[in-house]
Amino acid sequence: MAERRYIGQSTPRVEDDALLRGKARFVDDLTAPGVLHAAFLRSPVAHARLLGLDLEEARAIPGVVAILTLADLKDVLTEERLPLQFISKTLPPDITPYVLAKDEMLYVGEPVAVVLADSRATAEDAASIIGIDLEEMTPVGDLRAAVEPDAPPVCSTRAGNVCEAFEVGYADVDAAFREAAHSVRLSMNQHRGGAHPIEGRGILAEPDAGGGLVVRSSTQLAHEARAFLVALLDLDENRLRVVTPDVGGGFGAKFLLYPEEVVASAAALLLGRPVKWIEDRREHFLAAIQERDQLWEIEAACDAEGRLLGVRGSMIHDAGAYVPQGINLAYNAVTAYPGPYVLPAYHMDVRVGMTNKVPTIPVRGAGYPEGTFAMERTLDALAARVGIDRVEIRRRNLVPAESIPYATPLKSRSGAGITYDSGDFPALLDQVLEAIDHAGFEARRAEAARAGRRLGIGVACGIKGTGRGPYESAIVRVGRSGKVTVFTGAMPMGQGLKTAMAQICGDALGLPPDRIEVICGDTGTIPLGIGGFASRQTVVAGSSVARASAAVREKAIRIAAHLLEADGGDIELVDGEARVKGTNVGIDLRAIAASAHGSPGYALPPGVDPGLEASENFMPKGLTYGMGAHAVEVAVDEETGLVTLTRYAVVNDCGRAINPRMVEAQIHGGVVHGIGNALFEYMDYDDQAQPVTTTLADYLMVTAPEVPRIDVRIAEYPSPLNPLGVKGVGEAGCLPVAPAIASAVEDALGVREAAIQRVPLSPPDLIDLLRARAADAA
Amino acid sequence: MNDGTMTGDQDGGAAQRFDVTMTVNGIERTASCEGRRNLVDFLRHDLHLTGSHVGCEHGVCGACTVLVDDHAVRGCLMLAVQAEGRRVETIEGLSPEDGPLSDLPRLFAEQYALQCGFCTPGILMTLREVIRDTPDAGETELREALSGNLCRCTGYQNIVDAALAALALMRDGGEGA
């Protein structure tokens, strides 16, 4: 076993130097000779029949090379629609987006035609003057109305606006209600907005002389993108390479092969010229996926001490106009509802509703924030009904440490049971109370009250399933140069993935991380890969890198033993060398690799197969679950409705931290995303389903002044499900933020029973709440 | 809404080309661009200095922030022709080409103040001005100064810590920015 010198240390990020010198290469930093720039004509209305396009004037603009519609692409496309990303036996076949709109446009921003021109400005000029002949149809924007039986259809050819309905649950929930001492009802309306990486989507598709294509895309799924493009463009896999440049954030928005990427690729093949498309922010608002709305109706029952007995209800999830990926968001949300608590009986009826809005797929958190919000609000409501403290009701319901591993009666979408594999949930709750000085809160509240400020405190917990399968790939190779390279299908987009992989490999091979190159998301260098989603990569790719590195280590030692005429047990790998312990006799990795590569006509060392490399595709048996406890203190201005966060603390289980500072940084980002969901980010549409928050001035992302110092404490309960013991943390931070803030705001205002059931919570919402409180008091 | 013809003067000269000269990171540079070309696109696509990034193209996210005559400006809200004859600094000029990172970017690395790094160039340029002009800034002032730069990854805390460290370094006689 190798010594752990790098795993667990906050080693410097290998990504940073290039990024800090302006030498990183994002997709818009790339170009190609003869490149054509694409601009899309998009549907101006939420629902209309497409009757025709007037392209004449646009085509006449100097510099415009082509304007293409779906019909123009038919020679290079095998299908008019995108393939469904996740396998489904139940979704109807006509549910995925068209590559370009065919005869009906279902949301504002849906791509209808593409202009290719010698500059982006010219392409945009041309797209702006294309005439669209359309017949407006009734748009369906309101989710609740959309799923009513007599609602107008989102798409004229579909049977209705519910694309899938399913039940999730276990045990006799009605019996639980018959035994209950207390019950509450909640009607929650949750909204999550958009992903909004600061770099939008983008692609450069470059044809080669042999009819093939190199696609450089700002994506979270290089290998999946290749698979879909191969199918849609009828290309041999060897003729299509997808390479991912530096990616400026993803957060879910890039975990999809989009129509624009297919169109750019198809147009490049059709025209025999490179095609580049760079999304602007308005397009991100209109046409990049969102997570948006869920409507929860919950009834919860508990015993006289506040222990949960059962929860039943329904949830409607807004899928938008198409389903490009699956129903995973809705499924995740309702299966995340029980969270880290013991819930003896549960039943939810779920409907996945369609609206004339851009499709939804997971944004950071992937349904878990909604499930967490619903559970945490349930607990606050029950605490008020029972008359016990909000922390105490959580303590009484958390899965006790002695019950871990805890098999819930629910299954994840792979069919594997949802089992909380390690952790001590009550201990994390205690730690977060200590971190925020919960014991000292009432004194702080009293002092603030003397100065005319209303303080409140809120606590909430969440648990995130991480490390989703089926596998991730890794090849670890010591080249003839002696240089070590890690290849993986995992996709960095800011997490520091390359650093973490280099730390893991570095421990095995006795090399500092900055001497290991990590190449991610290039289908030309590694055949298999899944990509970046579900807080999975340190778990799944990390385990593959660990195993492949261990295999390379073992082989390097075996060869070194042969070359040095020593016993393998006496050899250590240090600083790029295999040394006989306690001597200065050694041989460097370059010589070992050369020996393994062999010389023409000469034998390899005995028992050694060619090359100093290993390939691993770790397949996790199930998700590994990391619990997080959050506590927040707020000050509320009763006149303006302004909520100011004054303290924030998080304790989150990451299994084992590969790089503690990077883990903390992931939690910081997740919490601030959650603050956006709680207080600011609202993707608004008018009653015609026309988006009205299409700039970052209208759609409020969190900025530095709104954020308090976040005290992050890492808990390490190693997972038994992977060789490193790690759990993902990319999303965890955003889960319990909104319910913790809602609880704190209510506490500040003296409002109880979980009156806040809608997020984001705006100042006008707060004023309404205060008026309702005043009316109740009167 | 324009009427579709982008020639002659109906577009107000937007597509008319100009030779623009400015000093970028200490070197005089000239390139030809359309009148409507904004400064950041000029830097990125005409001068091939792709370190400054474009995040929203409507002046909110701050990723395109560069210094013009020592003041932070949005590269997407200033036309290239408006920078004629002026002094522009970008992230490429922050650290010596073949030397170690200068203080502020080095402190960003030390404090894990960047993740995807896409917003980072604009944030560095914003802070360069803040650190120079308000050496006594505290955390509250720094957060306020950063309110024009969006970052989706970091939650800002480590950025603030890097800036505080830079200010401390400068008070101790270092360069800081």
What can you see in these coordinates?
The complex is a heterodimer of chains A (778) and B (177). Helix content of chain A is 28%, strand content 25%. Chain A is built from 19 helices and 29 strands. In chain A, the strands form 7 sheets. Chain A has a 7-stranded mixed beta sheet with strand order 3-5-1-12-9-10-11. Chain B folds into 2 domains: 17-93, Roll (Ubiquitin-like (UB roll)), CATH 3.10.20; 103-171, DNA polymerase, domain 1. Chain B is 29% helix and 15% strand. In chain B, strands 2-1-5-3-4 form a 5-stranded mixed beta sheet, with helices on both faces. In chain B, α2 crosses α5 (157-171). Chain B is globular, with a radius of gyration of 17 Å. The chains are: A alpha+beta (778), B alpha+beta (177). Chains A and B meet through α1, α3 and α17 of A and α2, α3, α4 and α5 of B. Chain A: Keywords: Molybdenum, Oxidoreductase. Chain A: It comes from Marivibrio halodurans. Chain A: InterPro entries: Ald_Oxase/Xan_DH_a/b, Ald_Oxase/Xan_DH_a/b_sf, Ald_Oxase/xanthine_DH-like, AldOxase/xan_DH_MoCoBD1, AldOxase/xan_DH_MoCoBD2, AldOxase/xan_DH_Mopterin-bd_sf. Chain A: Residues 21-138 form the Aldehyde oxidase/xanthine dehydrogenase a/b hammerhead domain.
As a percent range, the share of helical residues of chain A equals 25-40%
Taking all residues together, what is the mean pLDDT of chain A? 96
- Please trace the helix and strand order of chain B, writing H or E for each element: EEHEEEHHHH
Q: Structural class, judged by helices and strands of chain A?
A: alpha+beta
Helix count, DSSP H or I runs of 4 or more residues of chain B: 5
Number of helices of chain A: 19
Which strands sit side by side, in order, in the main sheet of chain B?
2-1-5-3-4
Give a quick account of the main beta sheet of chain A: strands, pairing sense, barrel closure. 7 strands, mixed
Which fold does the CATH topology of the largest domain in chain A refer to?
Aldehyde Oxidoreductase, domain 4
Question: How helix-rich are the residues of chain B, as a percent range?
Answer: 25-40%
Strand order, main sheet of chain A: write it out: 3-5-1-12-9-10-11
What is the CATH architecture descriptor of the largest domain in chain B? Answer: Roll
Q: Any idea what the shape of chain A is?
A: globular
The CATH C-level name of the largest domain in chain A is Alpha Beta
The gross shape of chain B turns out to be: globular
Number of strands of chain B: 5
Q: What percent strand of chain A?
A: 15-25%
GO molecular function (chain A): iron ion binding; oxidoreductase activity
Pfam family, one (chain A): MoCoBD_1
Keywords (chain A): Molybdenum, Oxidoreductase
InterPro entries (chain A): Ald_Oxase/Xan_DH_a/b, Ald_Oxase/Xan_DH_a/b_sf, Ald_Oxase/xanthine_DH-like, AldOxase/xan_DH_MoCoBD1, AldOxase/xan_DH_MoCoBD2, AldOxase/xan_DH_Mopterin-bd_sf
